[in-house]
Amino acid sequence: MKKIHIRKPDIKGLSVKVRNLKFKDIKEHYKARKERRQKILEERRNSKFAKKMQPVYKWMNRLSLPLQYLLACVINFFIEVISRHSLFQAWNYMTGTPLVFLFNAFLIFATFMIVYLFKRRVFVRILLSVFWLFLGTCNGYLLLKRVTPFNAQDLKVLSDALELTSNYFNAFEIVMLSVGIVAVILWIISMWRRGGQYTGKMHRLLAVAGIAAGIMGYMGLTNVAIENRVISNYFGNIAFAYEDYGFPYCFAASLFNTGINQPSSYSEETMKEISNDGALTTSETSLPSEERPNIIFVQLESYFDPTEVEWLRFSEDPIPNLRKLYKEYSSGYFKVPSVGAGTANTEFEVLTGMSMRFFGPGEYPYKTYVKTHVLESAATALTSLGYGAEALHNNGGNFYSRAKVFNDMGFDHYTSKEFMNILKTTPKGWATDDILVPNIMESMDTTAGQDFVFTVSVQGHGDYPTEPTLENPEIKVTGVEDEGKRNAWEYYVNEVHEMDKFVAQLIEAVEARNEPSVVVFYGDHLPTLGLEAKDLKSKYLYNTNYVIWDNIGLQKKDGNIAAYQIMAEVFDRLDIHSGTIFNYHQQRNKTKHYLSDLELLQYDIMYGKQYAYEKNGAPITEGHMVMGVKDAEIKDVVTQLNGDYSIYGANFTKQSKVYINDEKQDTKFMNNTRLDLKDSELKDGDTIMVAQVGSSNTIFRTSKTYEYKDGKLSEIVETDDSVENGRQAFTDQEEKKD
């Protein structure tokens, strides 16, 4: 047997060469390398195979445009295979709607026109092909996790999504994803090294003209396709739109078609008529202040009544508390703007009274308009009547930019998970909703009068495991033959059962306050469990459920209602007439031109000249919100035997971080009164404080700052200038992060 000899690396010789290396040597090395490369290419061009293929290459160059379109068709087909998770469904789509298929292929073809600007045409085609297939793969994977397809707005929440990677990918999937990405990158690099170059004369001006022609051709073809109803520029259902009109067109539409287009009838005169010469902006109520109730809205993540599924069976009623509320209080179906995802869009409709149907397909106003502009909402409508406005969410404060959005909507406080002492989570890592009860009570205690509290839960969030996860589930689920799907449904139903318990706990806590109150519970969208309209009793994928509980004797009034109408409906029952959009719903619902005039009003307020505000002024010009309702408190610093430090105080959470001289320390959360520091050093004269820190190291709120001296702390009294400088520093940090 032949022995294998491993040559010992000549480390010493290599180091000598490196020390004696000169710039001239480097230059000659790369020159020789280039010459070798040219020699190899020349040998390939003069090889027998190359000579035989020269006539073929010649004809391929002459027919490059039709061949390029054929490549676009192939890529488009594979995108649809990935998106639809089925070769046969993609084939049926291609053969059943050939005009739509060819139109989408033309979009891909138009992007391929840039290859004529480069000599490495094959390599550029490979890059573009990988790009389109990558987008299709993203869409296909997201459709496995939710009903809403991949759209341009997902790119705007990418930073938030990366923080939730573990919630959507298991360890094996993360490893395989990393391996796949590295493999593709290495393959692309190898193709760049091995790929040939176009040897003919370059006509770059002609190539630029071709690119312009491709863009103009696609725009013209789009208008023709819309006019002939081959495609549509309105997506009433984004998931169905992707199925009907193809991924390339729908993704491009979500990228470029954003905001609300100016309606043709928009004018100052029209807006004066719609706003009743500014009367819509008035705020009034006949209720004396002492009779005005607390108004609490609770958005339940992925909630709907599971018994709405025709074929699902349960060992017992999974929502006994909500079922009782449905029978005794106003309830019905709740029409939401999305399925399987899009929590923030349901929030937007509820808080503003605006309809998502007028925005671009797949848009999240939280990540576009409201992130950078103030906007009147239920918070501004009620604060104008003396209410306090509180927002809560047991998830990260930066998720969907809520820390900015709630400020721009006029809330007084926002309590995110960074301010909650979360000790219980679901098996998938989401905070349980029971933590919201004490935090809602604390938020209501910030004012002596009435409160508007808007709460967003997270416990029911997907995805839902197909493997057995719950050891002893309270609710057993049957009616599903596939074991994986049954496990997913059983997990979801038991989380809904826990949410039902939270509803009962919250009502009990509200009743104990002995204050007039109204609490509205509703689901933001259906769960990501592959439901179809035929599976539901309502035969509609955009229905969840709502109920309006109260202790003031409101008449039970059942009915179905849209998310953008619910706030106006509750206000009307309480004789509250405040907020431009809410007043519009109360006065114009079910009248002629109701929806078209609503579109005009939304456009005027958000993108137009705000004619509706000319008489009484805008309800909000800047935000004033504070994160959380309590400061973290530092009471003492104790040096442990091993030299580490323990910070004792109050209101600490897992997101509490200690800063020494404005530098964040490695902080270990022990409990709500103790934080431990490891590998930190305190010297006389050092400053110390505790901050509640969100994603991207965003500091939401800080404790008082102390000076450390002789083992003791003394408070540093901040001047108005130092406080203002701190606020400016936070603003600068946020601007850099965005």
TrEMBL record:
Source domain of life: Bacteria
Membrane-related topology note: Multi-pass membrane protein
Domain (Sulfatase N-terminal): residue spans on this chain: 293-575
Pathway: Cell wall biogenesis; lipoteichoic acid biosynthesis
Region (Disordered), start-end ranges: 719-738
InterPro entries cross-referenced by the UniProt entry: Alkaline_phosphatase_core_sf, OpgB/LTA_synthase_biosynth, Sulfatase_N
Pfam families linked: Sulfatase
Keywords on record: Cell membrane, Hydrolase, Membrane, Transmembrane, Transmembrane helix
EC number: 3.1.6.-
Gene3D superfamilies reported for this sequence: Alkaline Phosphatase, subunit A
Residue intervals passing through the bilayer: 59-79, 99-118, 125-144, 168-190, 202-221
Locations listed in the record: Cell membrane
Full protein name: Arylsulfatase
Broadest EC class assigned to this enzyme: hydrolase
Listed GO MF terms: hydrolase activity
One annotated Gene Ontology cellular component of this protein: plasma membrane
